[in-house]
Amino acid sequence: YASVCGLAPSLSGSARRDCPETGYYWLGDGDDCLLAVGGDLAAKHIPAHAHAHPAQVLAWVDGCPVLTDTGVFEYEAGCARWCARSVQSHNTIQVDDVEPVRLGGSFYWFGNVTTDVYWDDNDLLMTYNVGGIGQPSYSHRRRVEHDADGWIITDDLTGLDGTAIVRFHIHPALTTSTEDEIARIVDATTDEHALT
Hints:
Shape: globular
Strand content: 35-45%
Distance between the termini: 26 Å
Largest sheet: 4 strands, antiparallel
Number of helices: 1
Mean pLDDT: 76
Strand order of the largest sheet: 1-2-3-4
Radius of gyration: 17 Å
Number of strands: 15
Order of helices and strands: EEEEHEEEEEEEEEEE
């Protein structure tokens, strides 16, 4: 949105605030950073803004977005709105084709996911449990680590009775390539690896 409006947001310095009470956690410094979602799916007073994104991560490399979230671009009830709020549209894990909470129409959720978080500047551990009528029961533990060599994201699932799908949505200006079972995110304009 900022790019469309001609704005150039900065990810470093005073523009970036560490506010764990919001449920959002920054890792990394300067233009190589990662934002993780470790809070509730929505503020309790505005459930219509909920997204099924427990333990989601967003990443920037050299100040450019790499792992992204499209946000909700449709407010009329229907498939486009449902998909944009769904777990499948976020950088996290989905089990089978089930949401971590039940959708209650176009503007509500039934239930919530509470995430336990351990966090310091270079290490984040998020754990949450899912279960309920018509839902698989499992625990998802996502660890995000950062060092001079980059990011390591590790997912562990316990109690799983289904198939897990991990999704990472990359910025539209980037492409992916696979080589020797290693996925690489490539800047389409320069052919340089943005993330491996």
